[in-house]
Design brief:
By secondary structure, this protein is mainly β. The protein has no helices and 5 strands.
């Protein structure tokens, strides 16, 4: 299998969390229908205020086709 599809489990969290290897992206859901959902933090700065805002986003990263090698 291609290494880019690797999902690792970090058991130092309670409960354990799963991550994609690139960018340490937290995987929140995965379906056999081919959907992968991730949790990502986005930071932005408002032009009129000298303050950074943090947004926490859960979104679908990619659509993939799942199939068996059997």
């Amino acid at each position: 299998m291609n290494r880019s599809f690797l999902i690792t489990c970090n058991r130092t969290y309670d409960p354990p969390l799963s991550f994609l290897p690139t960018g340490n992206i937290n995987v929140t859901d995965i379906w056999l229908s081919g959907e992968l959902r991730v949790y990502a933090q986005v930071a932005c700065k408002r032009l009129l205020q000298p303050k950074w805002w943090k947004l926490y986003v859960i979104s679908t990263l990619i659509d993939v086709t799942m199939k068996s090698n059997l």
